[in-house]
Amino acid sequence: MRIHIINKNRERCVCTMASKPHPPLMKKHSQTDLISRLKSRKILGVGGEDDDGEVHRSKISQMLGNELKFAVREPIGLRVWILISAVGFTVMALMALVFPNQLYEVVFEEELSTTNLSIRLYGGALLSLALIMWNGLYTAEKIVIQWTLLSEACYFAVQFLVTSITLMEIGILPNSAILLLLSRVLFLVVTMAYYYHLGRKAKKI
User: Fold this and answer.
1) Could you tell me which residues are beta bridge partners of residue 55?
2) What is the Cα–Cα distance from 198 to 106, expressed in whole angstroms?
3) Phi, psi for residue 166 in degrees, rounded to 5
4) pLDDT confidence band for 64 (50 / 70 / 90)
5) pLDDT tens digit string along 181-196?
6) Rounded CA gap, 139 and 81, in Å?
7) Rounded CA gap, 46 and 66, in Å?
């Protein structure tokens, strides 16, 4: 008897729940939805222009940046110049490491009176710069190429100053040293021209 009463109560509850009408679904109007989106974007800090005038559509785009912004528009002959620099630095480094006396005699037209250690250390520094050049040749990142060019320009400037001071102290001016100084000035100008071109901001279309 009790089981029959319990079953009846369960059937009544089920019928009551089944017959109870569901509340109507609230539909958002397009204008209300648009206002909510604008408020959400304002809270997240997206949708406005940044310092560069770019409008980011999402927080991820704002944090990571636009990939077109980092695209490098390379000047003509940049890769060829870096290749020439990498090969030149590598050859000079190997000559300084293997034939230090001959390298000194070619520049100053006299025999090296001191130890070969300084020339070999110079070759090691050149080899390190050569590795930077080879890395800059195969990279596509603008900042890496800029630092590669800046390192090369710094080397040319320092070598020009050191060679000029050494020639004044020795009191000689051989033709090979003059050619070396002129080439360093030329290389410095070309390297800084490429560096300046990469540093300019691209015009927005």
Assistant:
1) 49
2) 35
3) -65, -40
4) low
5) 999 999 999 999 999 9
6) 14
7) 14
